[in-house]
Please model this.
Amino acid sequence: MTLDRRRFLALSAAAGLAAGASATTVGYAQDTTRTNAKIVIIGAGAAGTALSNRLVDRLEGAQITIVDPRKDHWYQPGFSLIAAGLKPAGYAVSRTSDWLPRGVKLVSEAVVAVDPETKRVTTDAGTQLDYDVLVLAPGLVLDNDAIEGFSLDVVGRNGVGALYAGPQYAAKTWEAAARFSETGGVGLFTRPATEMKCAGAPLKHTFLIDDIAERAGTTKRKIVYASPSDNLFSVLIVSEKVRMLFQHRGVEPAYRHVLKAIDVEKKVATFTTPDGDLQRDYDYIHVIQPQRAPSFVPESGLAWPDRWIGQGWAEVDPHTLRHRRYADIFAVGDVAGVPKGKTAASVKWQVPVVEDHLVAHLAGREGTARYDGYTSCPLITRVGRAMLVEFDYQNNLVPSFPGIIAPLEELWVSWLMKEVALKATYNAMLRGRA
Amino acid sequence: MKELTPSTLVAVFEEIFGRGLFWAMVVTAAVVTLAYFYVLIRDRRVSWQKFLFAQLSMPVGAVGAVFFVMWATHSEFADIGGPIDVIVLLAVAVAGAIGMAILVYTLESFLVRRKPLP
Model:
């Protein structure tokens, strides 16, 4: 048989079509449950969106309503890259409605109350939503007023950064941090005493700004990391590693320092310490606001009465994320009152657990999935390197790639994961595919 | 990471290079590979003269691929921190070398006049 160009192309096209056809038939079938239950999900962030995408595949006939006033979806793991000038603010912004599945109703209002007895949710616009199952996924709120002299208006000027407040504020944080990286002086990097999102982010910001200043040749700088506890990270083996890195890099740790107030004009910060209030001058300060559950959670009687007083996290079983007093309420993501895991990685592990128990509940069964507190943090130590830190409720390191990616080693591949692979994985999670 | 499916991998690569650039590279790679097989089948033999030239181009491909990845990921050689980093870097270099060899061989086959078989 002679082969001319035309015949070769036709053969190739046929082979391509055959491969495509076989790929589309490889899907996986999951059994669906028929129900006419009303499910209300409060919050269309990472947790609420991922869960709604998975539930539409598992339930047939359910009425799913998702309540969230914010039009924009924020890719929060990107904030630390924006605040180091590595990505623009738009990197972390998409539209909430773009991620939601068809058949789910979006109510763009804020929840003000939940009545767990009559099973009713009330919004700020007065809309009342009855539910059979309720999922709390509203995230958390940053308490800007808790630090005297601080407000969002000051972020980006007079050496004040606060990257948690949103993509725009992360970009303004970089404006202030970039000036510091060129002029040097004293940099104060803080973290709050409350539970917080991604406990690695304050460290990442410290490492990145130190690295950027070093590369810029700014040798006249003193960087202080103020920790509210007597360690640098709740997992002690990680804390020790960070302490060694800080020592090597000349970053000075300050233990038991809780930021209380800042004087933006004089550039003075006041810390509460065991020895009383302490004032420190700064040229750059990174403020992380204390963090709490949205007020409707404690006001509706859904918070832990005896733990995390004043923070309002939802009272759920740490392994099933089901409310301890109301079997028809679950909490997932930042709002869940569990000892670890206000990260996107935790959400990825929590969502299938809530899905399992929720679907089982509607089918009159008991769920079997269990969440062990897994969370992970690609802890950036400089531009181009990170440590992939993964751990659980018991502070055990639980590496995903044992023997290949060592958890406490500064690696280039871990940086690649954070810088290039994480957002794609996150997006896949939002769509319920990962 | 919990699961690594083909669709996750595609999404990851789209994110790394941007959707347009990634698919343009996939199409380019597919076209070059197809053209390579085409000339192999058409000529019914490997031309060792072209193959030698293709081999000489391999280091260029290896170095080019490594620099491209470094550029695309805000990285530099000093960031290489452990064995897995070296392995990934070598894999990038090998892929670049093989890709370049195939490309050069195929171009030669199309551009250089075919000598009649002895």
